[in-house]
Amino acid sequence: MLLPFESRRVNDRPHQSALDAIRARVEGILPQLAASAAEHDRTGEPPAANLARIADAGLLRLVIPRLAGGYGYGLSAASDVIGRIAEAEPASALILAMHYLQHGTIGTRGFSGQIIERIRKDAIMGLSLINALRVEPELGTPMRGGIPATVLKPAENGWRLSGHKIFSTGIPLLSWLAVWAATDEPQPRIGTALVRAASPGIRIVETWRHHGMRATASHDVIFQDVFIPAENVGELRPAHELPARDSQQAIWSSLLIAAVYDGIARSAQSWFLDFLRERVPANLGKPLATLPRFQEIAGEIATLLAINSRLIRTAAAEADAGEIPDPQEAGAIKVTVTGNAISAVEAALKATGNPGLSLNNPLERHYRDVLCGRVHSPQEDSVRIAAGRGALQDARS
């Protein structure tokens, strides 16, 4: 179900007709996206045509400020769009979610106004997607600490970038890469470089062979002496001066990722309810939907997803109003929503038995996809450990 577009514009209140127009665009492309989902899962081919449809519908500019030529919506609208697209075709939704995350928080990392304007203009003019590349083979996710092995070496009028990134969601379709790196100095400074994906010295290694979310094409990327203009590098700070996590980035990341996996669970719910209505065993003589046991399972799934809807909608509206939660709370929301989504799909799978596991039905694909919600940062163990430490400290005070 598409949640109401309740977010504010960056500069003023949205007009209802504008919200209705965006909703109509989203709804208009969903059938084509949904029709391609099984084939993208089977082949692992990135959904280029789907992202082109999304761009043609003007959705790449959703969270870009109005003064910059965008629509100026916030996290509520973004999470609504992502959740709805994820119901149809989740790989496109995750790639778009990463794009929204970068545009929604690009002003927090010390980039020049010139490069921010360039990236925004590219997204407004056509199919220009951006994502962050942070994870590395040795370091893993930076959420767990450490200094990146990807390095920036000083060069005339800029820097030279070299390194190896993994899990680069949507990389064949990206135009801009926000690359987390450290300077090649005795006391390294850390920051993000904005790199054109077509720059010389960038090589994609097709390593993505995953159980779920296959079409995200989250391959490895090798950077070899890639030139980066000085204005493309954000604020560089010593490791000890870096905040544990930026609150705005945390809530945008947590809610957009949560919306993807909640959307997958809603698609699974839709198939499951249809199955219960249509399945009439010969020995029963009426649909499974008439049995209390299956009604209870349907109610369990509906309850889990109702909680998700409330969490996403409330947290997004508060963030749009400037009431941004701390990163620990944002992480707890992500873990709860993705956990509920997994539980919902598991309940449907358990109830349907062999039909649910059949490759002829989409439920097994939804299950493989929704399980990937666990691996996105912040992960469950780090969220719970942080919450536990905080609770123990509060108990001592």
UniProtKB/TrEMBL annotation:
Domain of life: Bacteria
Protein name (database record): Acyl-CoA/acyl-ACP dehydrogenase
Lineage, uppermost ranks: Bacteria, Pseudomonadati, Pseudomonadota, Alphaproteobacteria, Hyphomicrobiales
